[in-house]
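Entry type: protein chain
Record version: 2
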Amino acid sequence: MSQPQYRTVDMGAVMQDYERTQTDKAIFKPGDAGNKYLRILPPRADAKVGLYFVPFWIHWGLDKLNPVGFGDVRHTVCRAKTYREACPVCDIHNALRARVFGTGAQPTEEEKDLEYDIRPKERFAMNIVNMDKPEDGVMIWSVPKKPTMNAIRGVFNEWGDVCHPETGRVLKVTFEKGKFGVVCESVQATPKSDPIVVPNWWEHMHDLDAFVSGMAMPLDELRERLMRGREPETTHPAPAAAAPPPAAAPTTPPASVAVAPPPTDAASPPHTDDDAFDPNDPTVTELCKKLGITPDTLRASMGKAS
């Protein structure tokens, strides 16, 4: 009698998935337009630095870069700007940026839109309490640099430490309906000091570094998704053309020509697999044409060898 075939559940992965869903619930979303009253919390006791926020960079537009590979996954943390690591999306963006803004460039509207979408954008994560719904507990507020973070910095400059547990202040944040949803319009400090109303709030603050790293797609997965759906289909090869006759040997030896070594890309990791990369493959040339980059640039960003 055959034995049942199955794989043991990885409880570590199961708990990571559970924690991710709990973190998703803890992300503050303004909902409708109007005034929201938020209390920024101080840094955690184990924070690396005494800042109330953690900065990071995001690449949006992954679903436009390759709809097949990313599906409904729209963003990932930029490894180059956040962690000073190799970032394949940055390699593609740098080549596309040169095509859009380079001397004599004549980019299409699609190229301009894609360059803006995948351009790394700075954001900031912080722990807050929504004073309108304190029963939601400690939440994570992720904000862009402009205008939100700049406005919060202005409040700190005017009022001092507004996240102090005893003397801090509630912020009145005004949200308005924008093109892609509700956006922050202004941030002001209220004139009185208000206590943090969540009991034992310091025990419920989120690890902001872990929150950021959780949004960073693993490098191997990122590369695979960038190329997913672009591999050539298996077809019967066309008959090979007749080889041309060999050229006649020169009567005198040619002059010695110095050949420069191939360029290296410090931002791309070394090649670690044996997958062949065909720069003449139609799917590769189509992707390069869309992004305005050369096969060599695409090969470097994918970590492929020719």
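Comment: The two ends are 49 Å apart (CA to CA).
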